[in-house]
Structure of ABC transporter ATP-binding protein:
Amino acid sequence: MSGDAEPVVRLRGVGKVYGTGPSAVTALRDLDHDFARGSFTAVMGRSGSGKTTLLQCAAGLTRPTSGSVSVGGADLSTLGEAELSGMRGLRIGFVFQAFNLLPALTARENIELPLRLAGRPPAPGRVDELVDRMGIAGHVHRRPHELSGGQQQRAAICRALVAGPEVVFADEPTGNLDTGSGREILAVLRFVVDAMGQTVIMVTHDPAVASRADRVLLLSDGRLVDIVESPTAEKIVTGLEARR
Ligand SMILES: Nc1ncnc2c1ncn2[C@@H]1O[C@H](COP(=O)(O)OP(=O)(O)OP(=O)(O)O)[C@@H](O)[C@H]1O
């Protein structure tokens, strides 16, 4: 990883306040960070520390109140709603705790959906190669309810990757899985970074899950208070406890 390469996601002075007046809540305060291409970052912090807000601002789902966010060199504040929505469809991939696959579609149709919605039919072989690499090639003709949680999440990861995005955001991707399936999904995300060169930014509550990332950002009260490099669960717990 080269230190001076252009970051995939750049946050500068990002602040977010929900509401106005006495009921206003400051969720993020003056946050700066560069997410390097091909890196795997976990975001941790106690409940209410701003993790989801950070993810949503970085992914263009919510506009920050102050500061700037750029993804793949594009300053999101300069984009209109339609451009932002197009960017989220193709240049940003999402993986959710609850998988969020459409129940009426097969796994393959779910995976192809972002491209079809954008009017870009999937390149021949692209989906086959992806589902093969993600280990669900034999299951893609099934609907989500006919798949295990781990298989559904693999399909969701394929859907996030199908358009070749700049970055994949994952919000508690193992939160609905048992420990074994969760471990497998983390191995898949590591593969996505190490073998496919993708960038993954993941929110989690679990130090064991976060320890699979290259680094962990610790948030407290909307501030980025520490970065744990080459994390172990122990180092993360120590960092979190130091901030209580
Ligand atoms: N839409 C909203 N309107 C008002 N306040 C909000 C909104 N979304 C979040 N907040 C507040 O902003 C702060 C940060 O919330 P956020 O969801 O980003 O934290 P989090 O670290 O992801 O929490 P958790 O771990 O519980 O999911 C909290 O005080 C929360 O109550």
Notes: The domain at 9-242 is CATH 3.40.50.300 (Rossmann fold).
